[in-house]
Write a structure and sequence with these properties.
transmembrane; transmembrane helix; cell membrane; transport; membrane; mainly alpha; elongated
Amino acid sequence: MKSLELPLALFLLINLAAALIRATRGPTAADRMLAALLFGSTGVGILVLLAFVQRSFALIDVALTLALLAAISGIAFAQRTWGLTGRSRQRRAVEREDDHAFR
């Protein structure tokens, strides 16, 4: 099993480099957010690989925390960018009614 760890680590580092390039060149905020999510998932992979190699269970806790933060940030970004909360829906419904009343 020792022979598989080095190629996995190299693959994950290349993945991080690709995410860094994408984050700097991303034309939209969504591209940059996807790169940040890729950072999070790759970071989790690296931490789990390190935990396996070093037999350290504390790194798995850190990896789980990083995964949770990445998921929450992705949800928050999607909610803020594309989603509508209850108040926003009500506000838009009222604005539409006002627009139709003036026509």
